[in-house]
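re: that chain from earlier
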Amino acid sequence: MTALSIRNAVASDFERIIRINDGEVHHTSPLDVDRLRLIDGWCAYHKVALVDTHVAAFLLAIRSGAPYQNDNFTWFSRRLSDFLYVDRIVVSAAFSGRRIGSTLYDDMFAYARSRGITNIVCEYNIEPPNPGSRAFHDRFGFKELGTQWVAGGTKLVSLQGAKT
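^ sequence. v structure.
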């Protein structure tokens, strides 16, 4: 039997986080250790999910007002005064299908509620399509607030929001 737990990410997790991200980079965006350290400094919520002692997934979320230079974060900043922005959630393919992403989202929503944050926001690709992310976010009550082209016009994203 395997045990699932969630804890704050620490610097010694960063190499594993990079490898997990690399496995799903076609759905997210590239991430190296320097960029991860920078984003980690802005994160209000940066946790990993452990299966036994193995980092199986991670979630990076940044609170409104951070100095994050990102097209999607900026889009939300222009429209909402207070939010928690999910920069990325990635579950290692080796651990998919175990509700690890849902467990991380449940924890993040509880974190936001405990701090009076009423809006959780994120985006997922429409082009190229990411139907798995769409279905996942639908289960958490996310609704489309808008769309925009990013990454030099190579990706169309659905900008999503949910109430805590």
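The first helix runs from residue 14 to 23.
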